[in-house]
């Protein structure tokens, strides 16, 4: 292969001859140069992309670190609130005379939650798991306390309280002279004198367990209040409830009368605890 070079304004012509080997060498050098340029371009593009991605990851990592710090602060505040709840729970249980809280109840300790700069979340996860366990403990304790107070409310509602009718006491609880025989005999309740038809009220929540007309008690209503309490309302002129009916404290169940073994219009009122008559004075 011959290369002829003719300079402008000159008559000298230069001729260069290249053999096959020289051409191959030149072609190889050019190919290597092109490959080098291509590789440099590719490496530059890859480096630019890596740098951009690195900047993006750094920004994202900074945001995550900031979020973790914020979550750590919130978690610490939540843990402190759980400690306060545990202390209040212990106070309520003490006042209610319940058993002491579970031994793994969180104690009154604290301090900021630390998360390392590398973003390790194991410690944070441990605190989250601990708070979950504390929440379960508080839930169980709250259910127990609620059940206790529900029982207390039920017991208070079942305990007789107040007067069953408006009137005045003509005979109290205890031994007295019988108005029929003149002999001393135990009187199991209160006799409350009132006009015939005066409303007779239930003194506690309960269920009507007996409605009858007896020779001694006359027309009688017996209420079963649970927890061992029963109340008797005797000598009524009218019965306003039926066996099995649920009644509330203060509900009208009968009317004062003079039925049965009675010397005048009055209500005979008894309170029994576990089947034993007790002095109604305790419950008025």
TrEMBL record:
Residues 186-280 form the M23ase beta-sheet core domain. This is M23ase beta-sheet core domain-containing protein. Signal peptide: none annotated. One of its GO terms (molecular function) is metalloendopeptidase activity. The chain crosses the membrane at residues 22-42. CDD domains: M23_peptidase. SUPFAM superfamilies: Duplicated hybrid motif. It comes from the Bacteria. Residues 61-88 form a coiled coil. It comes from Syntrophotalea acetylenivorans. Keywords: Coiled coil, Membrane, Transmembrane, Transmembrane helix. InterPro entries: Cell_wall_metabolism_enzyme, Dup_hybrid_motif, M23ase_b-sheet_dom.
